[in-house]
Amino acid sequence: MSTFVVFDLEFTSWPGALERDWSAPGQLREIVQIGALRVRDDFTVVEEYEALVRPLVNPRLSPYFTELTGIEQKTVDRDGLPPAEALGDFLGFCQGQSVLSYGNDMVVLGENVGWARARGEEVKHGFLDAKFLNIRPWLNTVAPVTAPVNVGRLWQVLSLPKPAAGSEHSALFDCHSFVAALRHVCDSGATLPEGCV
Fold first, then answer.
1. What is the pTM of this model?
2. Separation between Cα atoms, residue 181 and residue 98, nearest integer Å
3. How do 98-101 and 131-134 pair as beta strands?
4. How far apart are CA 197 and CA 195, in angstroms?
5. Strand order through the sheet with 31-40
6. At the topology level of CATH, where does 3-134 sit?
């Protein structure tokens, strides 16, 4: 049975950063948490990946980010991996897979890989070994009720049981919400876009 990966990122943020597209000086979208699930084509989860990452340009998390995600500074300081290591591990997890996101998280991933390489750090594995796809437009078309919500709320707007412990803006929980939504729409007759599996 074939598998694919769904993933979600949490990255540094401040009040109004989304509306300004992170254009304020020094406000980069540095990854702080990566969550991913390897999923069979019947939507059974076969493997989880989760990592905390220590941001380098903005090593102090904003109170806004901590309130949004629940990720505390002391946890990142203690458990966070260097960016190049976390990125390489995650890209290794994705090797040979279709990798689905609910939005353009692959752009943020690419920014972070680029910064690590610009610092002269080795990022093991690369994008060429995986096929990244943003399927938010497809999901919003087959289930229009999903259009206004973030990935962590998909399960709620589709009136599904809570898919896992935790809450939105935790990368791994958001992945479980995403998989629950995909399973629901496919059980209701939709077919994943070509190339997803």
1. 0.96
2. 17
3. parallel
4. 6
5. 45-52, 31-40, 3-11, 98-101, 131-134
6. Nucleotidyltransferase; domain 5 (3.30.420)
Output DSSP code: residue 18. T
Q: Which amino acid is at 10?
A: E
CB 102 within 8 Å of CB 138: no
C-alpha distances in angstroms, 42 versus 2, 20, 125, 153, 184?
Answer: 9, 39, 28, 22, 11
Q: What is the pLDDT of residue 164?
A: 94
Find tokens 């919500």 and name the residue: 149
CA distance 41 to 117: 34
Tens digit of pLDDT for each residue in 119-155?
A: 999 999 888 889 999 999 999 999 999 999 999 999 9
Quick: pLDDT tens for 48-94.
999 999 999 999 999 999 999 999 999 999 999 999 999 999 999 99
